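Dear colleague,

Thank you for sharing your sequence with our group. We've completed the structure prediction you requested, and as agreed, I am returning the results in plain text so they can be pasted directly into your records. Please verify that the sequence below matches your submission; if there's any discrepancy, let me know and we will rerun it promptly.
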Amino acid sequence: MSSVNGDRYNKSTAYAYDLSNQMTQASVQTPVADETTGEVTMNTDSNVNVYNEGGQRMSKTEEGEEERYFYTGSTILYTKNQHGDLRTENIVDLSGRIIASKRFDDDGDPGHDVRAGKPVLLLSLRHQRQCIGNRAPRRYIN
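Please find the predicted structure tokens below.
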């Protein structure tokens, strides 16, 4: 609960679901006071999810930014933003499990290890253990 000039205002959240009980929308209303007048208005943020007939999420829109999902079978192979730039790319094994994931920045450029300035690939913990045995796992490989 927020308080502005002694008046109390509640933050509220509403959810919408489809017939398969998948969340299609979430809306959050937050009270915001004008610094000059003290007038309180409700700021609304909405997230929207779109699913295909198989129940896979095809897109997510958050703060006006859309992310689209692309699958191989039931596994997310990669995601792109509304401009067609890659956001994530997954490497899957023959059984369809994600074994590594690569993240991209807002321009579709690969994420970089801040310390080394090199592109990074995130390995799943299971695959890390298979690759390196009992040694302490590294979170990133170059």
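Summary note from our side: Residues 132-142 have pLDDT under 50 and may be disordered.

Kind regards,
the structure core
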